[in-house]
């Protein structure tokens, strides 16, 4: 279980106005009941079991690439343009959900009194949060995101995922469906995906890809092309070809309620931090 650094006051309080809620997933992964087809990769369950061990490692055993304490300024750097402005424009009843929040440092920074705040590259929302006080955070852990009921979580204006479920999930379309179901109409999901085929094609030759998509005929599909087939959303992709790994910054605004995410099935999974994943689009009905 990841450490919970909030005071009892902070995380026992039911939020009344601005609420920030954090979900950390520590449940075993695996195909689960929703899967109708056998994965193509033999012994994929062994990779899921290895991944589970990575999540459970603590202290010196944690892989160096498995960072769990990024602060708000890190979030500002790795999330799409406009994230900080969106945070700054949250109204008094608006809510932010950070999925796969690790130690929750970004949200702690958001709530930090101004003097203690991270010195550089502050996000616009910080001052506002400090005014609102520190009693509006909930830190939830122990279940997978989809196992929290809609009633339990409510709806959110902003949802973020920084190298969390979007990077690690073995069921990406179901994960995204759950995220979008928790978003208000007009709200936005901000995330980032490393080592992918970039929308603008600027990724360099010889790249080692971690997340790959193919269509039903096994032809490559870019993550952003798949995302843009999701109904009732407006998807914006920013490409970072000069980062260590070609990285796609993704913003998904929900514009109406009838959201439908084209289904992906996992065909390969290689445990790691992050894991390697290959998905196949189900044939369109
Ligand atoms: C590398 S840490 C990132 C933590 C934090 N966002 C940061 O940047 O410091 C990955 C986080 O994602 C969570 N996670 C892993 N798989 C997940 C999944 N399938 N769905 C949601 N969260 C997941 C882990 O529990 C962990 O909190």
Distance between the termini: 41 Å
Mean pLDDT, all residues: 83
Give the proportion of residues in helices: 10-25%
Give the DSSP E fraction (strand runs of 2 or more residues): 15-25%
Major sheet description: 7 strands, mixed
Radius of gyration: 18 Å
Strand line-up across the major sheet: 3-1-2-4-5-9-8
User: What structural class results from the helix and strand content?
Assistant: alpha/beta
| Cofactors, ions, other ligands | S-adenosylmethionine
Supply the number of helical segments.
10
Sequence stretches where pLDDT stays below 50 over 5 or more residues: 1-17, 31-38, 126-130
Compressed to H and E, one letter per element, the order equals HEHHHEHHEHEHHEEEHEEEE
Quantity of strands, as a count = 11
Shape: globular
Can you walk through the features of this model?
- The chain is α/β, with parallel strands linked by helices.
- 24% of the residues lie in helices and 24% in strands.
- The strands form two sheets. Strands 3-1-2-4-5-9-8 form a seven-stranded mixed beta sheet.
- The longest helix has 13 residues, at 44-56.
- S-adenosylmethionine binds at residues 24-25, 55, 66-70, 99-102, 145, 162-165, 168-169.
């Amino acid at each position: 279980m990841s450490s919970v650094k909030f005071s009892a006051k902070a995380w026992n309080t039911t939020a009344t106005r601005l609420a920030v809620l954090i979900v950390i997933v520590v449940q075993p992964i695996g195909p689960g009941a929703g899967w109708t087809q056998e994965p193509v990769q033999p012994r994929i369950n062994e990779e899921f079991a290895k991944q589970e061990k990575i999540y459970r490692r603590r202290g010196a055993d944690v892989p160096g690439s498995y960072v769990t304490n990024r602060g708000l300024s890190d979030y500002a750097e790795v999330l799409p343009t406009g994230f900080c402005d969106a945070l700054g424009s949250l109204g008094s009843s608006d809510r932010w959900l950070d999925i796969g929040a690790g130690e929750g440092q970004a949200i702690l920074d958001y709530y930090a009194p101004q003097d203690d705040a991270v010195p550089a590259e502050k996000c616009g929302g910080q001052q506002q949060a400090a005014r609102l006080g520190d009693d509006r955070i909930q830190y939830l852990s122990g279940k997978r995101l989809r196992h929290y009921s809609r009633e339990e979580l409510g709806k959110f204006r902003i949802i973020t995922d920084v190298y969390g479920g979007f990077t690690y999930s073995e069921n990406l379309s179901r994960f995204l469906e759950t995220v979008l179901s928790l978003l208000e109409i007009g709200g936005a999901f901000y995330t980032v995906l490393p080592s992918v085929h970039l929308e603008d094609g600027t990724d360099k030759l010889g790249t080692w890809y971690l997340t790959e998509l193919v269509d039903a005929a096994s032809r490559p599909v870019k993550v952003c092309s798949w995302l843009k087939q999701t109904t009732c959303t407006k998807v914006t992709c920013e490409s970072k070809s000069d980062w260590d790994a070609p990285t796609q910054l993704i913003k998904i605004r929900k514009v109406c309620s009838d959201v439908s995410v084209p289904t992906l099935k996992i065909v390969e999974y290689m445990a790691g931090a992050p894991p390697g994943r290959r998905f196949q689009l189900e044939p369109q009905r």
